[in-house]
Amino acid sequence: MKKIIFIFLAYLMIMTPFFSCSHTGEGNAASNSSGKMEYAENLFMEEHEGYTLVTVRNPWDTLKNLARYVIVPRDTKLPDSLPAGTLIRTPVEKALIYSSVHSGLISSLGAVEAIGGVCNASYVTDSLLKARIEAGETADCGADMTPDIERIIKLHPQIVMRSPFESGTHYAKIEQLGIPTVECADYMENSALAQAEWMKFYGLLFGRRDEAYRRFDSIASRYQELKGKAASAPQRPKILLDNIYGQSWSVPGGKSTMGRLIEDAGGTNPFARYDRSGGVPLSPEKVLVEAGDADIWLLRYFQQNDKTLPELSRDASVNSQFKAFKTGEVYGCNTSSIPFFDETPFRPDLLLEDMVMILHPGLLPGATPRYFKKMEK
Description:
This protein is α/β, with parallel strands linked by helices. Helices cover 33% and strands 19% of the residues.
């Protein structure tokens, strides 16, 4: 096997100049407004004659770029002059995708056959992709943190789609293979529509650009319509989110995606004063002090059977002290059977619709929640 890996790496050293230009992770952040997206702040797409230049800004250091891609259609001749960046010929015909969030999106855009391999196959919920994995048509490449390198070498994907981390140490082995890597930093955006807009980039990669643009426009329109209806509601109930994990409770900061979703749904985030784009870890006692009077509790959890209020009380003594618990206004989403995390990053309109229904009963007559349901006593 060592001999095979050596031969493969030697092959990549020879072939890399043909499919990859220099990486620009340390370059200056994109400033050309012509490539600016409508909502996304860390993604820029500029159309040029013969190619599209895609720049991913570093979310942790916005004065720098995380990556730069030169996208050229596979059926056209390479332009004589191209800017620096990783060259990707499209449509991509074989990809390794780390996250079920992204593989589910690509499948829904009609390019499931281009998903050559996935990591964390047990978390895949998309029916078409699950069937391909079971049939051996899509390779199970192991866990995202410890991928099966031998299987990836055998697969020989044209790109690897992964979610970047600030430390950048999790993917060292993959990077040694020299396969072009697409940094899926959509999760670092600060609003639901900003994250969802990344589907335009992913659609471009798989030859589904027009479909991705149409879909996003429809999602954004529905999201704004729901937001407008919620804004007309006479009350803005206070919302508590999730539960204790380990020794702390992660609550949505004022600039976080979930924090902004609460506001867009016509609710009040009791932790909006924390000027953070992500979660804020607090002690359960601190959460009780700041959100003990929350009107509604939205709880995401993962277990075989649906959680009940008595079980929630047994989970931690502090839980039964919240107003929402006492009034029975606790709504649970069991992510073991409901594809919440696979769907909502690129369908925030569906999540917002759920939240508007719960926060403002009667505002959307005839609609039923997709993700959350009232927890039984």
